Amino acid sequence: MNLFIDASKYVLTLLMAGYTYLNFRYFGVKEEKREALCRRQAWLFYLLHGTAYAVLYLQTGQTRTAVLYVAQVLFFVLYRFFSRVLYPKASRILINNMCMLLAIGFFMLTRLNFDRAVRQFGIAALSAAVCWAVPWLLDRMWQLSRIPWLYGLLGLALLAVVWAAGSTSYGAQLSLDLGPVSVQPSEFVKISFVCFTAAMFYRSVSFRQTAVTTVMAALHVLVLVLSRDLGSALLFFTVYLCMLFAATSSWLYLGAGILSGSGAAVLAYRLFSHVRVRVSAWQNPWADIDNTGYQIAQSLFAIGTGGWFGMGLGQGMPQRIPVVEKDFMFSAISEELGAVFALCLVLICLGCFLQFVMIACRMQASFYKLTAFGLGAMYIFQVFLSVGGAVKFIPSTGVTLPFVSYGGSSMLATCILFAVMQGMYILKQDEEEEKDDEESL
Amino acid sequence: MRNPFKRNRKERTPGQKANDNILGLTYAVVLVFVLLFGYSAHFLLFQREQVINNSYNARLDQFAQKVVRGRIFAADGTVLAETALQEDGTETRVYPFGEVYAHAVGYSVRGKTGLESLANFYLLSSHVSPLERLAADLSGTKTQGDDVYTTLDPGLQQAAYDALGDRRGAIVALEPSTGKVLAMVSRPGFDPNTLNEDWERIVTEESGQARLLNRASQGMYPPGSVFKMVMLLEYMREYPDDYEAFQFDCSGVYQVSDGGETYSIQCYHQTAHGQQNLQEAFANSCNGAFASLGLMLDPAGIRQTAQELLFNQELPLSMAYEKSRFALEEGADVWEVLQTSIGQGRTQASPMHIAMITAAAANGGVLMEPYLIQKTESAAGETVREFSPREYGALMTAEEAQALTEMMRAVVESGTGSALQNDRYTAAGKTGSAEYETGKETHAWFTGFAPAEDPQIVVTVIVEEGGSGGRTAGPAARAVMDAWFSE
Predict the structure, then answer these.
(1) Distance from C-alpha of A235 to C-alpha of A377, rounded to nearest angstrom
(2) CB B21 to CB A286 under 8 A?
(3) In sequence order, what are the beta bridge partners of B264?
(4) Do B53 and B118 meet the contact criterion of CB atoms below 8 Å apart?
(5) Which of A14-28, A141-155, A188-202, B320-334 has the lowest mean pLDDT?
(6) A 338-367 residues inside an 8 A Cβ radius of B
(7) Mean pLDDT across chain A, nearest whole number?
(8) B134 neighbourhood in chain A, CB within 8 Å
(9) DSSP 8-state assignment for residue A288
């Protein structure tokens, strides 16, 4: 049995590497071959998911692990089937990637904390089903681009409520307690914020409009900083800058934005002790390893001890990292499945981003184009902050890895994000089909 | 048809322009991820072992479930620590030399110290053949961990241990050209074989014993006259052309008036040294001369030189150590300058740090990072990793090192270090007798190297409450050097 677990980590790495390879091969093959490629990818996905759960089952011997696995397979099969039935033109590679990221999160959570894994699975299934409505809505509601202030003010109000009444966890006000559930509104404001910015720039990119939009964006960031949610603040700021540049093509704005952002960062460093704590823990986690440096040191121990091929699923000590299932999933995966596997995971995320960028480039209407790009940027910077913080490339900001980390709000918001992208992809496919029809007439 | 490679930017529609921007930003994102991947790969390839070999990393203990902890050898292959299997299958760590290597090799019960901590990762890494590992996996037995060869010289270590006798203190011996730690002794010690049973007694013992503390690198002592090496360097830096013209008339007590107060600095036992030039003042360790010299210097300059010599700095050491402290600042009062100039006041240093400064002087100014692990070998005797000497950088120029060597040579030839005079090798050094508490004997220091013309070994000795550096620490250093040159 030891032998199987030892061998399984190489099998998992191999499957993951194969999947990741196909993910990028996709860009290089002709349209008609893509379907077959995605089908091969799906096989690798099912194999990987199955192998991981086999290892977990062999170690625990618990029936509930097997039951959870069967339920998940059922979910994946049904989700993929109905996605194709409802939206025959949906991007298969995006569906594949979404399933893959979900599956990795599922089995890692099962290994870390079974109850949370069940909860996460339930939320994911629900979110995925709810989000089937998103492309449909997107197709019918052309007014979406007309209501920037609804997005802007609603988002800002939500953030303000969290700041005023939110519950504090790990020094930051992130969530609202609503009876039995707690919601993290900032996850959803990420989407409304991108829509707001896109809708504003869709109207006009005049100086006046740009100034107003910038003030609103700054308010978002400010409220997040006051709530001590530094990761989100950084995320919103960076995404705004990217969208600003994409919309206006102004190097002046970009330069001024980077300058003022750096100024604000220095100011925040001087003003807030929790910023200084994060930075000093990043510069030298070993100096205060008992306290502020503890989390990042444990993360590095995990990644380092795991090495390239990992300790084997269930063989490491990822629970030693505080809040591992939210902010440090990358480290847990790297410890047990190896750095090769974990970096492949990052490559899959990067692949998703490239898909998003392709969709953005193909959209004609600038509202859609900016929304697609903004959401893509939001997604990939979040991945960057999460992974970069875990490997000590940048100071840790306590940001989750979308689809992989534990958290209901993050799960639903990421589902919506993927569904919006899927919706635009379908929109474009329809459009092109119509054009083809016209040409052939 | 338009040539797609000669696109005119002005002709582009807003949508195409936005696409250009998006693509540009996408390239930037990809670049950032390439950097992230590069950083991760660098971490895994080059920093991994150092990072995870940390006593806070509980994951290493998991290795111990699959691997039998390897052995620790002296440089010549003498076993310093090995794991013995008891009849009932439990493992015990055996240290054949007991107290002699207590701090250098350390222990691995109730936490880990010394080499047991430094080399923990190597001792728990197994490089047996894949076949053996497979067999062990199948049968559920453990594989043999790698062995670690240290830089320690058993003859020298024993000589240093004997030289300290029953006194509290520490001795460090380094090879200046490589940074190899040849011997490292701290007393009083403990028997690592029975530490578990003795633990309660050791930790509840009255203070002052501190048996578990490695005084060589963690002991903090006022450097006393040994600090005159630093003052000498600073004086040569501030008066490069005429430092040799320094003169001082010593009456045994040096008095300075400042703002209505009179401060006096005494030489050891109030000895009147008479007319002294710089070399004589250094050789005789004349406190009055160095106190007056200190007043001629810029406090900020002294601080800078002290920090260049790694006071207030992290030391390039992988073992546990305490940072040396230097407090003098610009605008300090006369009394503090006087005290600091003779190595008293608030200055504190570890014997290892003093040995490192001495080693730099002995190596043309260049400090080699002290290291304890020479190589690791698999159980089958194949070398897994070898550690080569690493240069830290120059602490002083070659000329300064040469001048300092000549001064230190005079200490042995005609000054307080006469205990090191002999006809087999030429030693150079500096003594110190550091006051630390009124009414108690001074701590005795000696730091030096030999042969002066081609240094092979640096020895630094501290004997707590040993009295005169020349009379207590000097002979101890002599014994260690004698052992080295008779081998």
Answers:
(1) 9
(2) no
(3) B255
(4) yes
(5) A141-155
(6) 339, 343, 346, 350, 353-354, 357, 360-361, 364, 366
(7) 90
(8) 3
(9) T
A305 reaches B (C-beta below 8 A): yes
Q: What is the rounded CA–CA span in Å between residue A373 and residue B406?
A: 72
CA angle A297, B30, A427 (to 5 degrees): 120
Does pLDDT of A315 surpass 60? yes
The pLDDT tens digits of the residues spanning A46-102 come to: 999 999 999 999 888 889 999 999 999 999 999 999 999 999 989 999 999 999 999
| Structural contact between residues A231 and A398, judged by C-beta atoms closer than 8 angstroms | yes
Contact A369 B18 (CB under 8 A): yes
CB contact under 8 A, B59 and A302: yes
Contact A400, A407 (CB under 8 A): yes
**What is the structure's pLDDT at A171?**
61
Nearest-by-CA chain A residue for B48? A304
- Report pLDDT for B10: 54
Peptide bond into A135 cis (omega under 30): no
B46 touches chain A (CB under 8 A): no
Delimit the domains of chain B by residue range: 229-307+317-339
With CA atoms as reference, the chain A residue closest to B49 would be: A304
The whole-angstrom distance between B131's CA and the closest CA on chain A is 13
pLDDT band at A226 (very low <50, low <70, confident <90, very high): confident
pLDDT of B42 over the 90 cut = yes
Give pTM, 2 decimals.
0.76
Rg (CA), chain B: 28
Tens digit of each residue's pLDDT (9 = 90 or more) over B268-280:
888 899 999 999 9
Amino acid at B357: I
Amino acid A368 reads Y
Give the pLDDT mean for B4-17. 62
Which pair of tokens denotes residue B481?
Answer: 């050097």
- What is the three-state SS of chain B? CCCCCCCCHHHCCHHHHHHHHHHHHHHHHHHHHHHHHHHHHHHHHHHHHHHHCCCCCCHHHHHCCCEECCCEECCCCCEEEEEEECCCCCEEEECCCHHHHHHHHCCCCCCCCHHHHHCHHHHCCCCCCHHHHHHHHHHCCCEECCEEEECCCHHHHHHHHHHHCCCCEEEEEECCCCCEEEEEEEECCCCHHHHHHHHHHHHHCCCCCCCCCCHHHHCCECCHHHHHHHHHHHHHHHCCCCHHHCEEEECCEEEEEECCEEEEEECHHHCCCEEEEHHHHHHCCCHHHHHHHHHCCCHHHHHHHHHHCCCCCCCCCCCCCCCCECCCCCCCCHHHHHHHHCCCCCCEECHHHHHHHHHHHHCCCEEECCECEEEEECCCCCEEEECCCCEEEECCCHHHHHHHHHHHHHHHHHCCCHHHCCCCCCCEEEEEEECCCCCCCCEEEEEEEECCCCCCEEEEEEECCCCCHHHHHHHHHHHHHHHHHHC
Instruction: Confirm if B365 and B396 have CB atoms less than 8 A apart.
Output: yes
pLDDT at position B258 is 83
Residue A204 has pLDDT above 90, yes or no: no
- Taking the Cβ of residue B247 and every Cβ of chain A, the question of whether any pair is shorter than 8 Å is answered with no
- Find out whether B274 and B265 touch, Cβ atoms under 8 Å: no
Summarised one tens digit per residue, pLDDT across range B353-365 is: 999 999 999 999 9
Residues A361, B19: C-beta atoms closer than 8 Å: yes
CA A254 to chain B, closest CA, distance in angstroms equals: 11
Average pLDDT over residues B305-326: 93
Q: Are B356 and B367 in contact (CB under 8 A)?
A: yes
Q: Residue B52: its chain A contacts at CB < 8 A? A: 300-301, 304-305
Candidates A246, A307, A354; nearest CB to B21: A246
pLDDT for res A440: 64
CB pair distance less than 8 Å for B17 and A393: no
